[in-house]
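Show me a record, fold above all:
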Amino acid sequence: MIVVRVAAAVCAAVCGAALVAGCVGDGTTPPAPPSTAPNVVARLEQALAPLERQGFRGVVEVRRDDRVLVSRAFGPADVAAGRPNTPATRFRVASVTKQFTAVGILLLQEQGRLKATDAACAHLPACPPAWSAVTIEQLITHTAGVVRNVVDTPQERAALLATRPSHLDLAARILARPLGAPGTWAYSNAGYDLLGAVIEHVSGRTYGAFLRASVLDPLGMGDSGIDWPAAEPSTRAVGYVGPATPAPSVDDEFQAAGALYATTGDLARWNTFLLTGTPPLLTPATRDLVLAPTVPVPGMSVRYGYGVQTWRDGKDLAIEHNGGMPGFRTYNGIHPGTRTSVTVVTNLDTFDPSTSGHTLMDIAVRYD
């Protein structure tokens, strides 16, 4: 039996997808089939009951063996318009993007176009000599010694966003910054921006076009993407930093580190792929690499893998990642032993979805 416990310091480290510190279907979700265990459903519903009283806004979905146990929407998607959240509402999921980027690299590896053990500079147009030993896998696992963010201040970030940079533009900035000693884990959004540059350089496509054609469309994730401004406004949640205070508008995030938006249903499709290999986007051996607890996080009972973090409790394994940016926070987790998937997304960034996510995961894997 697994009891998931989150390390606060790790949550703080992984929640931010922004540059500065901090951080197809009809959209309906079918009810749980009659054969789904009523005991666990009742317990999950009981755990969700306090959320409305707490002013939670967002969507929660729990599945086991790809059957919906609970799917609930709370609060407004848009306060000014009086539009409620629904299971079809799209949310920005920030650093949950990183596991998609890691899988993109592995797809290119399976195509024979690179190896994760390659020097990253072998797949970038130009690199300083100091970077010659940094590998793609070190970028994936946050052990390359790369700075956390491309720029350091909100003012620098706003100026850079205004230029709508490509990943290759970002790479030039990152490669000009100091490089630490590779080998020690230190969370880095900038490292994932470099991975976006690798994907663009090797594939000959923009990161967004590559992700759409190679990952999102094959998995049926038609309600997901990275171009948030282009998504239909009536389908998007408005992010809030207070009950009625919208978060500052951000038209473009640094894509490979945290630009993805999705519905809970689409994230469940992604989780099903990770749990079962269906659809067969990767070979089983490569998919197992995504889920492997690769690198220890100093001072924590946590390991970081290919865009995900893992905990072990005896023989059980929980795999998850958080995401956070102004106005949005996300928890997305799976438990391979019971094929359980838990997703909590919120458009109120004062709410920590990890707490609810861990409670729901604990219930879902403990009870029939």
